[in-house]
Design brief:
heterotrimer, A mainly alpha, B mainly alpha, C alpha/beta, B: mainly alpha, MetI-like fold, 12 helices, 74% helix, 0% strand, C: alpha/beta, Rossmann fold, 2 domains, two-stranded antiparallel ribbon, 13 helices
């Protein structure tokens, strides 16, 4: 059968860098790069907090003070970011805006967690009817534009019900009331998975009460992903506030909200672009920083999500 | 096939229920507000006010108003505007929906088209300048809010382009001409495009290393066929799953975009009515939004099993 | 880092050649390189792969594409992941035929069902339109084989074709490969770590260790008179039913070397019971030890009196 001519006649030398080590190395490199972004993000966030803190005690000019110089004045030595259409010092207003941003972001992250964690724990731990009810609300929410509900809530809470004067607090509450589902869904999933784990089973066998189980065993083990989720709530809330204020539905003038400042400058954009540039750049940098840190944290806490 | 139709039927019912439920919440919330559009009017005699309230049924107890409203919604009648008397809301919003849907459709085209192209290019040219450019654009892009992009778009295409071409060629905000579509569609679509690009790149990188793509190479298929039919086809599956939230995001974003660019769509109507306290329209817009999001999600879910035969309803 | 170094062998028409070795010995890499399918960042640094007059290593992209699946086809280890989950089985077979000049689109379409019948897929007519997830592991491997032989290649490379399958279907898959290769007069390279499989199926055996061919020859000769200590140990580590004398099984101590930490001299010396001083410093060449049998060893088993006794100490 066999003929003289061979079908194939290889004479080989293959170079191959060991695959495991290469992926390991490049993975580490990727993480380093990603972490460098996270690091840059952390620095920006640090600056934001410091600026916010300083603005409580000192800004170059009062944020509301008009006509400190000619209106629409471009950046100069006396006013590094220039003056706006009412002659207000933009640097001072950016600093004041940092404080509002921090309040909105951090406040929302806290309240979202305060609502979402207990509900998620209840749904995941007790399952059954409790879960059905909570999951029903979560699923309904996924079918609606949540930010627009929040927008209406801002109106109802402040203008109409006179519960709270329109301000940071009402924005935070409106946002949190429509955004707790993200955290709740995550915590529910974690609780569902963790309640089956051996150490929870062991604690239950040794007679731990439900509350102790939740507080001591389930919650601490779900903390990583919760922190990640809460971190991502910060840029979402900041964006929401900017979005409202830009439309004129958010913080009232002369509050130095970045969104409102962008809206102020937007009409004089052709001849004085600096008014609109300062707040939009500050806002974009802040959102980026929080997203980068969030990505970095997710990498750190959840290796499976790593890309 | 029958299973699919049944599934679509069930979903349509669910969308109707969700829509009514969500707008009911909005209805009840807004009716807590003591004031309404009429209070803005000066020279209002108490008799005239009472007549107006009666005309709109606003003098009835809340539960009666609610029942009337639900009956109206179920018949496709959302009532009349409180500000512009005699204006029927349903046809008005239908007209505006077609405007918003046009912008939204092109924005979605930008998002998916650009996102996919960038993501695939970055994955295929991994660790080259194409990848770095696409990846860094994506990592920056998804954090920039659409209204910021809109402002820059307006500045660049409306103002600098005007100066540069000495007034012969530039973008005028507004609606009605074909050339007024691209700028708002870009502004609305770009942030999400970078998100899609990130996701596509990651999922492409995963699929081009799979065994079945190696099989495709081993069969001697052309590179284009391997990339498109075998790698991309599978890489699309996770991308489709985020289309639902994406569409919700585009709808939310359109509220700002339409106001910046002066586009007479639902989003502009929404803000205008809130400021004018024309609550009938606010509720109506919301009903439309809820239905739109529901239908968009349903479309995505119907497309999904076509892409992934492992999913069946 | 050379994963494979100085691997030189030939496969004749109609012959079944087994490549054996532990995982990480470079046998899969060798097989993939015949089709130039080695994954990044590996590459063929030097050497030739002669196919008739042509050198596979020098082919252009278009030439290699036309070559893959047409002249040489490959069957992979894991049929669960080697088929594209979103394409129909029949289409994946059809596509393999359309990729090359051999058949027109119409012919390819008509040949799909007969191909599936030929690999003994029951009710092939109904199952061409199935997706991979509707097939069992054994059935998927049959479909892979159908794809492989659909262009009547002259060489079929089977990379551990039964490792991922149930023991009950392993034999039938091997039988199928043997029968088809006879019908098509195609040569087969069977990559495996299963010595029993090699004994029952192959004409010739190539033993690989640490990226090198350490022994090569006719199956009968290798099994009767293994000359390399590694081959010898492999055979002694395998229980045999037909063995009359009661031999003790011998295990090979230690692990194969890491690619990054190759020992100097003979790559097997750290685990070798029969090493001499020269083994530590100088790598032996692949030299003829008997007519048609070659081994890469300074010592050779025939020079060792009573190896069993030595190995036990």
């Amino acid at each position: 059968m066999a003929q003289a001519a061979p079908v194939i006649q290889p004479d080989l030398e293959l170079s191959y860098e060991m695959p495991e080590q290469v992926t390991l190395l490049s993975d580490a490199w990727r993480r380093l790069k990603r972490n460098r972004l996270a690091l840059v993000g952390a620095v920006i966030i640090g600056l934001l907090f410091v600026t916010a803190l300083i603005s409580i005690v000192w800004t170059p000019y009062p944020t509301w003070l008009q006509a400190v110089g000619p209106t629409y004045q471009p950046p100069s030595a006396a006013h590094p970011l220039g003056l706006d259409q009412a002659g207000r010092d933009i640097l001072s207003r950016i600093m004041g805006g940092a404080l509002i941003t921090v309040q909105v972001g951090v406040g929302s992250a806290i309240i979202v967690s305060l609502i979402g964690i207990p509900l998620g724990l209840l749904a995941g731990f007790y399952r059954g009817k409790v879960d059905t009810v909570i999951s029903f609300f979560i699923n309904i929410w996924y079918g609606i534009p949540d930010l627009l509900v929040a927008l209406i809530l801002v109106f109802v809470l402040s203008d109409a019900l006179h519960l709270i004067p329109r301000g940071v607090l009402v924005i935070v509450i409106a946002f949190s009331l429509t955004r707790w589902m993200d955290v709740a869904r995550l915590v529910r999933g974690q609780a569902l998975a963790l309640r089956e784990r051996e150490f929870v089973e062991a604690a239950r066998m040794s007679g731990a009460r439900d509350f102790a189980l939740l507080a001591r065993h389930i919650l601490p083990n779900a903390l990583g992903p919760i922190i990640v989720q809460a971190t991502f709530a910060i840029p979402a809330a900041v964006l929401f506030e900017a979005f409202l204020s830009f439309l004129g539905l958010g913080l009232p003038s002369p509050t130095p909200s970045w969104g409102a400042m962008a809206a102020d400058g937007y009409h004089g954009m052709d001849f004085a672009p600096h008014i609109v540039l300062a707040p939009t750049i500050a806002l974009s940098l802040t959102l980026m920083a929080f997203n980068w840190v969030g990505d970095g944290l997710r990498d750190a806490f959840d290796p499976r999500m790593r890309r | 096939m029958r299973g699919t139709l049944l599934y679509i039927g069930q979903r349509l019912v669910l969308i109707a229920v969700t829509t009514v439920l969500v707008s009911s919440i909005v209805f009840l919330l807004l009716h807590q507000i003591p004031g309404n559009a009429f209070l803005n009017e000066t020279r209002q005699t108490p008799q005239a006010l009472a007549a107006e309230l009666h005309r709109y049924g606003l003098d009835l107890p809340l539960q009666n108003q609610y029942v009337n409203w639900v009956q109206g919604v179920l018949h496709g009648n959302l009532g009349e505007s409180l500000v512009n008397r005699q204006v029927k809301i349903t046809p008005l919003l239908v007209r505006e929906t077609s405007v918003s849907a046009t912008v939204g459709f092109f924005a979605l085209l930008v998002t998916v088209g650009l996102g996919l192209i960038l993501g695939v290019l970055a994955a295929l040219r991994q660790n080259t300048w194409v990848d770095y450019l696409a990846s860094s654009t994506a990592v920056v892009g998804y954090s920039i809010p659409s209204f910021v992009i809109a402002i820059f778009g307006l500045l660049v295409f409306g103002h600098y382009l005007y100066l540069w071409t000495q007034g012969t060629f530039y973008y005028v905000p507004g609606w009605g001409k074909l050339e007024q579509i691209p700028v708002p569609a870009l502004a609305l679509g770009l942030p999400y495009a970078s998100y899609v690009a990130r996701l596509t790149r990651a999922s492409m990188l995963e699929t081009i290393r799979t065994d079945y793509v190696r099989t495709a190479w081993a069969k001697g298929l052309k590179a284009r066929v391997v990339v498109v039919r075998h790698a991309l086809r599978n890489a699309l599956i996770p991308v489709v799953t985020i289309l639902g939230p994406l569409i919700t995001g585009i709808i939310t974003g359109s509220v700002v975009i339409e106001n910046i660019f002066g586009i007479p769509g639902l989003g502009k109507e929404f803000v205008t009515s809130i400021l004018a306290r024309d609550y009938n329209i606010v509720i109506g817009v919301f009903t439309f939004y809820a239905a739109l999001v529901g239908l968009a999600n349903l479309t995505v879910d119907v497309i999904y099993p076509i892409l992934d035969p492992r999913i069946r309803y | 880092m050379n994963a494979v170094d100085g691997v030189s062998f030939e496969v004749d028409r109609g012959e079944i050649v087994g490549i054996v070795g532990e995982s990480g010995s470079g046998k899969t890499m060798t097989a993939l390189s015949l089709l130039r399918l080695i994954p990044e960042p590996g590459k063929i640094t030097s050497g030739r792969i002669l196919y008739g007059e042509k050198d596979v290593a020098q082919m252009t992209d278009e030439e290699i594409r036309e070559f893959r699946g047409n002249e040489i086809a490959m069957i992979f280890q894991d049929p669960m992941t080697s088929l594209n989950p979103v394409l129909r089985i029949g289409f994946q077979v059809e596509e393999a035929m359309i990729a090359h000049q051999r058949f027109t689109n119409k012919q390819a379409k008509e040949r799909v069902v007969p191909m599936l019948q030929r690999v003994r897929i029951p009710a092939a007519k109904d199952r061409v339109r199935d997706y991979p997830h509707q097939f069992s592991g054994g059935m998927r491997q049959r479909a892979m084989i159908a794809m492989g032989v659909s262009n009547e290649p002259s060489l079929l490379i089977a990379d551990e074709p039964t490792t991922a399958l149930d023991v009950t279907v392993q034999a039938s898959i091997i039988e199928l490969i043997r029968d088809l290769s006879r019908e098509l007069r195609a040569a087969v390279i069977l990559i495996t770590h299963n010595m029993a499989l090699v004994a029952s199926l192959c004409n010739r055996v190539i033993v690989m260790y640490a990226g090198r061919v350490v022994e090569e020859g006719p199956t009968r000769a290798i099994f009767k008179n293994p000359q390399h200590p590694y081959t010898w140990s492999l055979l002694r580590s395998m229980p045999r039913v037909d063995e009359k004398e009661k031999e003790r099984l011998i295990s090979i101590k230690g692990l194969p070397p890491d690619l990054g930490k190759m020992p100097p001299g003979c790559k097997f010396h750290p685990r070798c019971k029969f090493r001499v001083d020269r083994c530590f410093t100088e790598e032996p060449p692949l030299a003829e030890v008997d007519p048609g049998q070659q081994a890469r060893c300074w010592v050779l088993m025939k020079n060792i009196p009573d190896p069993e006794a030595q190995a036990k100490t």
